[in-house]
Amino acid sequence: YSDFAIQKEIHRQTVIRNISKTSMDYAMEFAARFREKTSGKSNENFVARGSPVPAVSQTTLWQQLPTVRDSGLLDQLTVDQIKYQESMFEVLTSESSYLRSLYVLTEHFMENRELTDTIIISDRKTLFSNILKVREVSERFLKDLEEHIFKEIVFPDICNILHYHAQHNFSTYIDYVRNQTYQEKTYSRLMKSNEQFAAVINRLQELPQCQRLPFISFLLLPFQRITRIKMLIENILKRTKEGTPEEQTASKALTSVSKIIDCCNRDVGKMRQMEELIEISKMLEFDKFRAIPIISETRFLEKKGELQEMSKSKTFVNMRAKFSPVYLFLFNDHLLITIKKGSDRYVVMDHTHRSLVQAQPLDECFGGATYENCFNLIILENHQGRTMERLLKHRQTDPVCLVLFHALWSCVCVSDCPQVQCVEQYIAQQADELNLEPTEIVNVIRKTNEGWYEGVRLSDGQKGWFPDTNVIEITNEHVRRRNVKERYRVSQATMMVKCGKAR
């Protein structure tokens, strides 16, 4: 997810803020909890459950609590100190609201017997994933926040609690978000193909517990929450005095939560890439030669689209150029040239490694409107070991065509990049560095004399720097393909020399 998409989704979804308690609920609970703490008693069964009520305008502020107002402390605190307390108190109120929403998802939907009877066990497992573990993490987190905040009216920094849970418990969110692609597909399929399931879901959504919010909104809660926690920490950090221990703790908490979100984003990207590869592999037909495995953990689709290829049937008798459509799939490491067969079937006509592809402009002798927007696609070595040239044409008005054309043109720029494989974990120390895990493969695009590489990770396209001591170069296939390209370059140069002498 991009930052823009995350922000847009948070604003669009109102579950977290709408399903919460009224100001009076929090005021009474806070006063009761504070009295219990001061009297030596505690209510261990306190949890953020109940029927959803208020709107955003009813959200509780720390300074509005009767216990705080009656204490007279507001007159002694500065505006900045009050804002600092509010920023921390919002973590508690929003977590309580979020947990109440999780209870709606688990008790109102997941544990509904009628809904359970409409789907098989595997679909139910995919649909709800590890939501019970997510709820348990939220319960523990909220309990720790309450025990810390309710000790005294003006409570100390909570970022140490945030940092601890990010380090030890929030990884549960990664497991949940990783499943989100399959979760969405399963829900969509069930709503279309299972009338009983759709009927029960629609009926449950209309009940008061849901506040007219759709079921899918509740499924999106965990990723929204972990993203919002990051925003809340940023707000705390903004209101923390510089150079204080509290600032250091807030920075650590922010770093820990940011890593969780990065992992979520990376895993979502990987799952979507894998899902896309699975879909593409189902569409392809290898009629004339042996099929190649499309699905790979290190492969992802960069561009696909339709271009026009000049027909080879052109003769001296019929000099008019004829173009027919070809459909290209350009992966990070491979190129497939296909012909479309039906709405979702493609027959593979040729394929090669991406580094063996070059795009070149036409010679000056090819003039006129017929060859406008045309270029030579040269395959230095295809799946049969042959060198092939194809005259292709893109439509200037088609944005998909243009993007594919520019991607093919850039193949020559990236084809000389050596590949390295990580043999020892590297944790990024700077913003422009790349985290690496053992077995990950990276395309190297730059090297320095100080022993640093800049590269692009194949699994997700992330770019950054890393030390050469943590990787080894993959030489076999890369060297072979580089030699093929060098032979082609020499042969082309020789041909040009011969043509010059002949003149």
UniProtKB/TrEMBL annotation:
Residues 83-267 form the DH domain. Keywords: Guanine-nucleotide releasing factor, SH3 domain. It comes from the Eukaryota. InterPro entries: DBL_dom_sf, DH_dom, Ephexin-like, PH-like_dom_sf, PH_ephexin, SH3-like_dom_sf, SH3_domain. SUPFAM superfamilies: DBL homology domain (DH-domain), PH domain-like, SH3-domain. One of its GO terms (molecular function) is guanyl-nucleotide exchange factor activity. Coiled coil: none annotated. Residues 415-476 form the SH3 domain. This is Rho guanine nucleotide exchange factor 15b. The lineage of its organism: Eukaryota, Metazoa, Chordata, Craniata, Vertebrata.
